[in-house]
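User: Predict the complex with 2-deoxy-2-amino glucitol-6-phosphate.
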Amino acid sequence: MCGIVAYVGRKIAQPLLIEGLKRLEYRGYDSAGIAVIDQSGDLFIRRAVGRISVLESVLQQDKVQCQASIGMGHTRWATHGTVTELNAHPHTDDSGHIALVHNGIIENYAALKKFLTEKGHTFRSQTDTEVLAMLIGDVYNDIKARNHLAAGTSLLQKAVQAALHEVEGTYGIAVICKDEPDTLIVARKGSPLIIGVGQDEYIVASDASAIVGHTAQVIYLNDNEMAVLRPDSFRTTTIDDVDVHPVVTQLENKLEEYELGDYPHYMLKEIFEQPHAIENCTRGRLELRENRVVLGGLANFTKELLHARRIILTGQGTAWHAGLVGDYLLEDLAKIVTEATYASEFRYRNPLVEDNTVVIAISQSGETADTLAAMREAKEKGALSLGIVNAVGSTIAREVDGGVYLHAGPEIGVASTKAFTCQCVVLTMLALYLGRRRFMSPQIHQELIDGLASIPELMNRVLQQSDLVRQITEEYCERENWLFLGRGYQYPVALEGALKLKEISYIHAEGMPAAEMKHGPIALISDGMPVVFLATRGYQYDKVISNIEEVRARGGKIIAVATEGDENIKRYSQHVIYVPDIHESLQPLLTVVPLQLIAYHAALHRGCNVDKPRNLAKSVTVE
Ligand code: AGP
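Assistant: Here is the predicted structure with 2-deoxy-2-amino glucitol-6-phosphate placed in the model:
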């Protein structure tokens, strides 16, 4: 998704903006640009297709670095218009006095463009963003011509407010104007913006990664809010100019958590961080001696959860896979009717939300548009809305009635790994929390929380097999089709393994329940085709062995993830990756790790960009 960084203060803006854009690269983009207002009062804009390094080389051609202390930068993930320098942000009005960067979609941009064209404005790009820049410029000139503003009022602020009232869709914007060289205006509706509050300076960004190196004090703008920022002052209002008094809060994560460290890729770092992330996720929440789970963010909703007629778990992609694990956990351990549903489907199907329904939005970023919309739809229909989110202060986290943060630390790799396992950990804790208050015996509860507490150490044993996984993967990563099969708790893990492989190695992979294979997909089995089976100890183990036999009989090559000590599996598999033995409900936390490593090593071997896979964005904040 697009990334915005903007600055107003006492320092030279350009290097700050470039550094901020580099922090936002992980969000996914195809072009970038910056705009500053230089000392002569001119608007200085540079844009480039490709990586930030291309933009830097364009800036170096200017020889003299612009000494401005106000400006903004943007990484563009194309929605409207092809990937060209002309379509890159920032965009200006046709006077060239006003510059704007934007994250989101202006849904009525065509009508606005027609209106503005008929007023004589000339457009240079194919983007919806340029329409908004042009609209602000048009309104600015209208207000200026009427010249009735009270002294000290920012004409730019009034123009932005008026223009945003004409806009349908979503936006996170930063706007500057050469005629108000000390004023930075930011506004949001549907696309996140965080304001970092420094000493006589403000740095605004789409997420905390571009702010944390400057300040830990932040303000989260809400939808339909805006801020007028100057080096020595700031004012936040609604777009109706009603004052808003935001709370300045402290960022949870430190700068070093965003650093790559000694790892070659963020994805590998985050795979290996999982034991530590799970320790952070369970800290203060697993009280082994008292044999209890503590989930402070849900304490006020225990009754609603215990008496829920249904719990709906909703999310997209990996978060939905975690929701599917949660579906099994809550029905198995807490005996509560549960449904995992894609947010993008839930939000549009006019869902049945009966009394005593609890909807839990699962999201690493807390900004996924479909998940946010599904949660809002559920609230609209009277459901209790809870969140399982990683990004503190994110939109979903701030709009739900309650929830549980993952505390997994920033997840920078586009392929979600530690967020998935921590989402499953939180869902396991929730299932235990509720199960213990329903039908679960203290003995089973104790066994499971002790098991959960042992996961970090057991997971480290799985991670030590990374090189074995690499060797196995390299035998098959030229194959263009893989299958991932599992039953019960391992079915969602099969889906997650397939998604990981697809999204970073571009190999086509499909996950499904192992039993489903005979209902069609078995036709796909060709000689030498790699098929990954989640074949750990469990009540369906023998059925999985039968499925393995069916694949072998048709020439498939078996890569089995199995329980330590299982010698039998070797008779049916070309390769076996062992995970420690643990209660079946906790196995997904271990069996997913070899699949994450398969995807990582396959992508590496195929020369793919592991952390910034083609076409993908880390957080899909547009529909
Ligand atoms: C997972 O590896 C993908 N990056 C993607 O499916 C992701 O899980 C999905 O877009 C949901 O993101 P969220 O957790 O931030 O809501």
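The mean pLDDT is 95.
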